[in-house]
Amino acid sequence: MTTIQRALRAFSLTAATAVLASGALGAAGTAWAHAALVASDPADAATLQTQPARVSATFNEPMQPQFAAMTVVGPDGAQWGDGEPAVDGTDISVAVKPGSPAGSYTVNYRATSADGHVVTGAWTYEVLAAGPQPAATPGAPTATTTATSAGAPTDNAPADGLPVWPFVAGVTVIVAAGAIWAVRRRS
Ligand SMILES: [Cu+2]
From ligand 1's centre to the CA of 187, what distance in Å? Predict the structure, then answer.
C-alpha cells in the first residue's frame, strides 16, 4: 500500500466512526424531550358557532410565567387577543376581545419552558358568527360547541436542539490530522 492509500484508509475508518458517534449523539438529543404543545382550546382546525372568551394552549411541561406571548389574529388581520397572556403551569391562555368578526383565526404563541427552551407555533380555528358587541347582548348564554383540546396543532417546530455539524466538522479535522500524523510517523 502506498502512503496515500494508507492515509485514505485510516481516514475513512475513523471518519466512519465519527459519523456513527455523531448519529448516536443526535438520537440522544431527540430523546431529551423539550416542551411541546399537547392540546389547545379551541382545537386546531375546530369550527365554533361563536368566539370563545379565551383561547388556551396546553404544554407537556410547566412554562415560565415570563416571556410568554400569544396573539389571536382574525380574518381582518387584526389582533383580537386582549392583553398579556396568562401562564398557569402547563397552560397559557389569552382573552379574546368582544366584537370579533366571523371567519378564520390564527393563534400564535411563543413561550419558554422551565429548562429555558423557547417553543413557538400556531394553530387556527373558524368562528361562524360574529361576536356580540361589547355590552350589546348582556347575559346571552352562549351554547358553544366547545371543541376542546384533542388534536395536537401543527407547526409547533421546536426551535431548539444543538446543531450536530460543528461537532462533525471538528471531529473530521481531528481525525484527518491524526491519520496524516500516523502515516507520516510510519513512513
Ligand atoms: Cu428543552
Answer: 50
The enclosing H or E element of 16 equals: helix 3-31
CA 27 / ligand 1 centre spacing (Å): 15
pLDDT digits (tens, 9 = 90+) for 132-174: 776 644 554 544 444 444 444 444 444 455 556 565 566 666 6
pTM reported for the whole predicted model: 0.56
Rounded distance, CA 31 to CA 187, Å? 45
Whole-number percent of the chain with pLDDT over 90: 48
Encoded amino acid at 143, one letter = A
Phi, psi at residue 5, to the nearest 5°? -60, -40
What cell does 67 get? 416571556
CA 46 – ligand 1 centroid, Å? 29
